[in-house]
Design a protein that fits this description.
The protein is an alpha+beta fold and 405 residues long. The chain has helices at 14-26, 43-51, 62-65, 73-82, 85-94, 115-128, 170-178, 235-243, 245-250, 267-280, 296-305, 319-331, 386-402; strands at 2-10, 32-35, 56-57, 99-101, 106-109, 131-133, 138-143, 148-152, 156-164, 183-188, 191-194, 207-214, 220-227, 231-233, 254-260, 332-337, 339-341, 348-352, 357-358, 363-364, 370-372. It contains 13 helices and 21 strands.
């Protein structure tokens, strides 16, 4: 059986639906289908943001927004000038989904449910007559003179224009390599660090604003650090994992992590402060109460790790003990042995080499009428709604390019 379409979109996720809807809204005459290999569409949208769907981020300046992308910063500058976070908010409001900004800048549906986004997409595709075909696993891609042929496990499709929005699907990357595209190998991007260390033992759920650095590299990030059952997580660690995705993969996730629990305060400044505290609080027990914005239980563990007894008074501290404590506070080293996935949000660094894509249209430079959007490209971002924004922007630009009248 041969099914003919004007536009065929492979991948029934965020980027695929957004592209399809924008194409048909701009030109209702187009015959469009979305092919999805799974039984369900939009499954990643459903679980994203803890089931609330972190749609975008309240960063409205393209030149600022690109800084959240370890891979894709340079390439996304032009696209974000065409369709940025503000355009995303407007688009969803027009389609009946109001968004809200949280304190950290992340944006969610007012309903706090990813189902609002799924319903919005399913309603729109239904109204626009877009075919959604599930259980369609692509087996081959073939470029004829003026059309594309796509074979799935169920049937053969032909189309004028082919759009791939399959995220980090290795099978599709292989097919693209077979027709001449280069693929940057995938490595995990957002992950937490596995650390076994008595300084953080039994402190699950405690957090502090800290600066984390991978020793002997230039990798450094700041943000809330969360102590977990397995080690360390939180925005600072996730940011470091995203920027360091390739380097940490090369290290096989075995490395020394330096933690500054006082954010960016230097060792010398901390020694001076501790000397002052020693004078001011001479009779008080050092381990009892943190003189910094740190959880008391963490402070107590850092004090003990500095070779200071649990009942020692400030007046009793030697120069060496003060130095040890300052080092624990500003440059404590923790050994990382492995990583864990951050929630259910699998993000990878890797994909189609960005040099092979025209970012004015998102079209392949190797093949006419072949387009890409979303994480199939070697683009990824830190957590906070940025990966979705890349999907919306790419989908919008593809639709603009394809339907230009």
């Amino acid at each position: 059986m041969n099914s003919k379409y004007d536009i065929l979109i492979v991948g029934g996720g965020a980027a695929g639906f957004f592209t399809a809807i924008n194409c048909v809204e701009r030109n209702p005459k187009l015959k469009v289908a979305i092919l999805e290999r799974g039984k369900e569409v939009l499954s990643k949208v459903r679980i994203s943001g803890g089931g609330r769907c972190n749609v975008t981020h309240a960063c409205f300046v393209p030149n600022d927004l690109v800084k959240f992308y370890p891979r894709g910063e340079k390439e996304l500058r032009g696209p974000f000038h065409q369709f940025c976070s503000g355009d995303t908010i407007e688009w969803f409001e027009k389609h009946g989904v109001a968004l809200k900004i949280e304190e950290d800048g992340r944006m969610f549906p007012v309903s706090d449910s990813s189902q609002s986004i799924i319903d919005c997409f399913l309603t729109a595709t239904n109204q626009l007559g877009i075919d959604i075909l599930t259980g369609q696993s692509v087996q081959s891609l073939y470029k004829a003179t003026d059309y594309w042929k796509v074979d799935t496990n169920q049937e053969t499709f032909t189309c004028q224009k082919l759009i791939l929005t399959t995220g980090s699907n290795p099978k599709i990357w292989e097919l693209l390599e077979s027709i001449g595209h280069s693929i940057v190998p995938a490595v995990p991007s957002l992950f937490t660090f596995n650390i076994t260390d008595k300084r953080i033992k039994d402190l699950m759920g405690l957090s502090a604003f800290a600066t984390v650095k991978v020793k002997n590299t230039n990798l450094v990030a700041s943000g809330p650090l969360l102590i977990t059952h397995w080690g360390m997580s939180g925005p600072g660690v996730l940011r470091l994992s995203a920027w360091g995705a390739r380097i940490l993969a090369e290290k096989k996730y075995q490395f020394a992590l330096q933690v500054n629990w006082l954010n960016d305060q230097l060792l010398e400044e901390t020694i001076t402060q501790l000397k002052e505290i020693k004078l001011e609080q001479a009779k008080k027990t050092v381990a009892k109460k943190a003189p910094y914005a740190l959880p008391n239980r963490l402070w107590e563990n850092l004090v003990l790790a500095s070779s200071i007894d649990a009942d020692a008074k400030w007046a009793d501290l030697t120069k060496i003990q003060l130095l040890n404590l300052a080092q624990q506070l500003t440059e404590g080293t923790f050994q990382v042995n492995g990583k864990s996935t951050f929630k259910d949000e699998f993000v990878t660094a890797g994909g189609i080499d960005l040099k092979e894509v025209n970012f004015k249209t998102m079209e392949s430079k190797m093949h006419n009428n072949l387009y890409f959007a979303g994480e199939i490209l070697n683009i990824d971002a830190i957590t906070g709604g940025f990966n979705f924004q890349n999907a919306w922007t790419g989908g919008y630009i593809v639709a603009q390019a394809i339907t230009e009248i």
